[in-house]
Amino acid sequence: MAIMKSIEVMSESSKSFEDAIQNAITRSSKTIKDIQSANIKNMKTTVKDGKIDKYRVNVKITFKVSD
């Protein structure tokens, strides 16, 4: 039986939601091994001068706990 653990990470990008999600996974991968999934809990944008400035996401990252 595998034991899983989840954390919630906030991330942003000036390019896209997809890039913000990838940033969250890439950064988390530096200190967490065996990431299994990413669940997007929330997506937001900030607007500046009538245009989207930042894409922001809250990501629930699930990973396998080592024995």
Please state roughly what percent of the residues sit in beta strands, choosing from under 5%, 5-15%, 15-25%, 25-35%, 35-45% or over 45%.
over 45%
Tally of individual helices: 1
N-to-C SSE string, H for helix and E for strand: EHEE
Instruction: Give the oligomeric state of the chains in this entry, treating copies of one chain as homo and distinct chains as hetero.
Output: single chain
The spatial strand order of the largest sheet comes to 1-3-2
CATH superfamily: Flavin-binding protein dodecin
- What global shape is seen? elongated
Q: Round the mean pLDDT to the nearest integer and report it.
A: 95
The CATH topology comes to Dodecin subunit-like
Number of strands: 3
Please bin the fraction of helical residues: 10-25%
CATH architecture: 2-Layer Sandwich
CATH class: Alpha Beta
Q: What is the distance, rounded to the nearest whole angstrom, between the alpha carbons of the first and last residues?
A: 11 Å
Helix and strand content put the structural class at alpha+beta
Low-confidence stretches: none
